[in-house]
Amino acid sequence: MTATTTAPAASPEIRNPVRRPSARLRAWATRAPLLPALIFMIVVTQLPFVATLVISFFDWNSLYPDARHFTGLDNYQEVLTDPDLRHSVGTTVLLTVAVVLASLVLGLVLALLLDRRFRGRGIVRTLLIAPFLVVPVAAALLWKHVLYNPEYGLFNGLLHYVGGPQPDWISSTPLLAVEASLVWQWTPFMMLILLAGLQSRDHEQIEAARVDGASDWQIFVHLTLPHLRRYLELGALLGSIYIVQNFDAVFTITSGGLGTANLPYTVYQSFYQAHENGLASAAGVLVVIGSIVIATFALRVVSSLFREEVSRA
Amino acid sequence: MSTTAPHARRVRGKGAGLGLLAWLLGIAFFLPIAWMALTSFHSETDAATNPPSFAAALTLDGYREFFGAGGGASPWPALINSTVASVASTLLVLLLAFPAAYALSINRVRKWTDVLFFFLSTKMLPAVAGLLPIYLFAKNAGMLDNIWLLVILYTSMNLPIAVWMMQSFLAEIPVAVIEAAKVDGARLPTILARVVAPISLPGMAATALICFIFSWNELLFARVLTGVVAETAPVFLTGFITSQGLFLAKVCAASLVISLPVLAAGFAAQDKLVQGLSLGAVK
What we know:
The complex is a heterodimer of chains A (313) and B (283).
Chain A lengths: L1 H9 L1 H20 L3 H21 L2 E2 L9 E2 L3 H8 L1 H32 L6 H9 L6 H12 L6 H9 L6 H4 L1 H26 L3 H9 L4 H29 L3 H7 L8 H10 L4 H36 L1
Antiparallel strand pairs in A: 1-2
Helix pairs in contact in A: 1-2, 3-15, 4-15, 5-10, 5-12, 7-10, 7-13, 10-12, 10-13, 12-15, 14-15
Chain B lengths: L3 H37 L3 H4 L13 H6 L9 H30 L6 H12 L4 H13 L6 H24 L4 H9 L4 H30 L2 H6 L7 H6 L9 H21 L1 H8 L6
């Protein structure tokens, strides 16, 4: 150690030419295993995004490729002023916020219940995880045809027994119908993360509080909830990242109709069906900007959890 | 004694009540899946009745129809495509993620946390952000409707998760164990094969399962970039979006069969699922 740190200062001309290549070589040997993964990610994810950014400045309909020309920020202006697209921004926000909040609250209730010992806890846990493990398109089909169908769906079938009304769920409350199916799928995810949080609590501290006469409610509010805070944040932010990008449920249940088109669906539609490459790209860039806002928070939360992990190690 | 007994009974009573509530909620969440399973074994006429018929005769017709007995399209090409895309991309992910995780946890590069966060940040780039250029590239390169294009895209989709997970698994290996092997004269390949691999094998398996699940489930890329030849199972399922009542049993059978690999993998890796989905941040 001392030899390498003091020697260059003493005789830099002689030492450096010998030492430098080997140090550089060693640095590259350390980096080498990382490079394939790093280069792969840059080529497959960053380059296409740069291309999207470039295309977003062009007026380009793929049905009229010869009319392609640079238009500056016109596409962005059109995206932001088009009532349909503006509506899809609102839909995306509403869908994401509603699904994340509802599944987080439900997931918390389920995690608290599952944190207790009771007969058959393993079975209940398995039953609860199942919705998350159904292929998303299959889950959406299940809700669309098997549950929501006004004539033979399970919901109206059960309502029949209590003599209730027989609504057409998807056409009367389309966005809510999409949201309910997503809450069903994402609640288990929230439950799993919060359950991991609950099980990492300091049980001695809870026992001590109980001995001191604290009620269950006081323990929940003053010990459990503060401990869970970062797990709640993590669940909310990871959930947001996935749900903001949701395509499967919107595509399957309503095909973007009845005011349920969110931004990913709109982007898909504007280039896949309307062939408006420039507009689609501008909308895509706006989705990215929205995601960056969420991601900034997400990275902060993950990195705070991560730092704790590193310092503990 | 006399004062603690009723208290204990009350606590136990409350515990039983909450246990019952957990059971009820568990059943409520599982009910749609159970109903889907039951419907898949009904005939189409029994499936499409209101009120629902709980005691209708069971039949395998829905499954026969799904597998193409009624003259419909066979799901086998789609199932095979999904298997190829998921398995191949999972293997490629492991091949790329293991060395990267090694460089981020055992023989660490400088600024390794920054690199780790770069991987995570790519996960936050929405798929639609790069879809159009990828589509145009595939079209010009003659790679539309090609399953290997999906393999590459699914690899990029899962690589960040895999690097994070494996990094956290490898970081748990005590430095002393590796140092001891070095003192014994073991070289890097031996250390990797004899020390690192055995310890990290369960973590690798969990990583592989999660990558498999995500690839198997993916719809957007598959929908846009494949057609007749490379169609995957979720794309095959989209064929049922507009099908009306006549095919309810078939829809249920299809949904269940296509979800089966994911359900099996997910149940097998329940505990590791959390760690993977939270990118290793929660253990």
